[in-house]
Here is the input.
Amino acid sequence: MGAILRYFKDIGLGLWNLFVGLSVTTKYFLTMKVNTQQYPEERLPLPARSRSMIKLIYDGEKDQFNCVACMMCAKACPNSCIKLEGVRMPDGKRRMTTFKLDFSTCIFCGYCVEACGFDALTFVSEEYENSVYKRGSLLQDEHAMKWARPAHLAPKPEEAAPVAAGASAGA
Amino acid sequence: MITGEQILKTVSGLLHQGLAAAGVSFLAPVVDRVAAAVAMFLGISVFVMFLVWMERKVSAHMQSRIGPNRVGIFGLLQTVADAIKLTIKEDIKPVKRDKVPYYIAPIIAFVATFMGMVVIPFDRGVSVQDLNIGILYVIAITGFTVIAILSAGWSSNNKFALLGGFRSAAQIVSYEVPLVLSVIPIIMVTGTLNLSAIVEYQAAHGYWFTNPLYAIPVLVSFLIFITSATAEANRAPFDIPEAESELIGGFHTEYSGVKFAMFFLGEYIAVIVSASVAVTVFLGGWLPPLPMLGFIPGFVWFMVKLVVVIYFVMAFRWTFPRLRVDQLMAFGWKVLIPIAILNLLLMGVVELFLAKGA
Amino acid sequence: MTDLLLSQIKAGGESQFGTDEYVVNLGPQHPATHGVLRLVVKLDGETVKETMPVLGYLHRSIEKICENRTYPQCITYTDRVDYVSAMSVNLAFALATERLMGLEAPPRAQWLRMVFVELQRIASHLLWMGAFAGDIGALTPFLYGLRERERILDLFEMTCGQRLTYNYIRIGGVMIDILPEFVPKCRAFLDYFETKVPEYEGLLTYNPIFLERTKGVGVITPEVGINSGVCGPSLRGSGVSCDVRKQQPYLFYDQVKFKECLATDGDCWSRYRVRMDEMRESVSIIRQCLDRLEPGPIETKLPPVLKAPPASEIYSRIESSRGEMGIYLVGDGTAKPYKAKFRCASFSNTFVLDQLTRGWKVADIMAVLGSLDMIVPEVDR
Here is the structure.
């Protein structure tokens, strides 16, 4: 007798729980609220710190890149993506001559940006559509990576870039 | 006030006039039947396309996402795009297949389910052929799908397809029993197998659920019928034979292109057939919910009720997990059939002792 | 037994045990194996006779690579060891290095680390829930889980810039301080999330079909679990108390109140319950951490070149989302580790799969595999 009662109780309980489950999905169906961003019509802006694309900062006033070819970014990179050369100018300062970053091996870890002490590298969060047709175009040189920082994005003194000490250890 | 009957009479009148003008009036009965069959075929095909879209939209909104919305307004032409894609797909055939069953199986799956729609009344007097054995005919025809599945599984020369075919056939055959048992209480009360007559009974005596005596047995019958119908159509939560996340792709693993499309559409038409029978037998077919809404034609109400029932069939798929094969069989034999038999007893008691003179 | 199985595969399935058994390959590409896991299954009709996992399809030689990278550069590789809960592996390696070199992160960094690791635990369990339900057949909880996970990933993106491979928890602290709007957004998310967990439970926990698929299936008794090396929520489902956060508290876990989620039966359903409860406990831990955040430095001062003491070694473990994640580091006085070994929970949980599925049906392999929360990149590294 107990088994028969348990049988019916199980069926009743099961039916009720199925109904509870149905009510959850039906509630979502009726509210019709979606969380979809309909790309490419809607392009929501990425957060400011997004590690999207690495760019070399070009100073418009001085008409030169900020990079002094100190090689700290090349040493910090885990995958050795960065190859750069520089020369010492007659006035004693170093300037970069060529800068190549291989984006096909870059993992966007951010160590190069953090290692740079001269505000030469940065992430530009708006540029995230970086698909190319030829793999060779992922090896970008300083002309492809040139980026002039708009005035409103100049770094404030208290929000300096994070310093990852130890990241620039010898490779 | 437009009714389906009037539309039918007008169209058939026009056809007969055309035939008389051509001097071949003796062909009138044949032309009637053929025209009705063609109309049903086209109508159901369009409805199936709508259903595929509806499933994708329903599942999408249940999951907080948008379904197809690019092809055509609200994505309504998505099914057309899918159909075109399936027809231009490469026809991959296993080399060692058994040719005759291999090609017949999708045809049977597609055609047999269509045959079930022949007896469904869409409005008063509007059905392709109003058979006196309506329900019996529908249930017998749904058994044809077993042949299709077994042929598909066997002829694919693939042990997994064969296993899937066996499982599916066992499932369909064992869920036919509660399907039939759940309809018998209604037949006991109405005394007829004729689907139009069942709807007329409901028109005369009011909906089942408004009658306190019949409400509970009919509710139980309805639930058992819907469950068995989803099992018959191999839909979740009973879709082990064709489950994507199991290692076996099911009986239609080796089919591609149009043949797969036929299986796929056959599954939807099976759902339509079962839901139509459920609407006709349990929910009043083409009757309006309230008499004052009778100015809206009957077939519109039929469609509305059909869409509501099919929505629930789809909601089952996207809400519930899948049953394992042995649990599926256990559920059918150990739960559905005893409950259906008890329900039959209950309805018998109600009909015999309590409903006298009602 | 496995040699016999291998020879059978080579011989094309000709078996001496009878003609009804055959060997089937749940190949590397499969919707239910959570990555590229290959299972060679010997079946007798529908019943499983033996399951042999074949690993290595996602081997990327991370441990070997780490031998040629400096300690901070290794952190970028730890993200990829378990990309579903990358913060935990970041933390494991950072803690191991700090213990090796005798460093300590400042308090604010410790609290922030706790917040992020617990958020990561919730995100990982949400993905697990979706995958588990999807294996069982309910396709909707996957979308719900991902919807919530997207909000957590938005919080991560706001802070460190990435959604999957964060490289956030560094040796000596964290990468960058949180933005001021992080705390209110995090609290808003936690409030929102607490209303969602009952929904998932309504969909799954007492669903009769789900119960039939998971109750009594894949029972790990405590003895079998401990002997087979099962750890984490999979072992807590059997009632064994094995949470590293309680036994060897790291960060400030001894200062927050949370309970260790245990269940008694040891079947798939118990493991499911343990993880759902863990999500709730993580919410409470995060709230307590956010309450106790105080301004301060986020990283200790490190030497420009981080060198390990010569001839040093350490084994350091944390509780990641899947269980005990241990890092064994050997330092030799240089800036690069001599040996970095990742002891991953999924790898040691794999062994018990064979014992659990013998005699059950094929569909149960999926249920058991899902409930063990196996992440293949962690298995293969």
Q: What stands out?
A: Strands of chain C lie at 21-26, 38-44, 47-54, 169-170, 173-174, 312-320, 323-331, 339-343. Residues 13-18 of chain C have pLDDT under 50 and may be disordered.
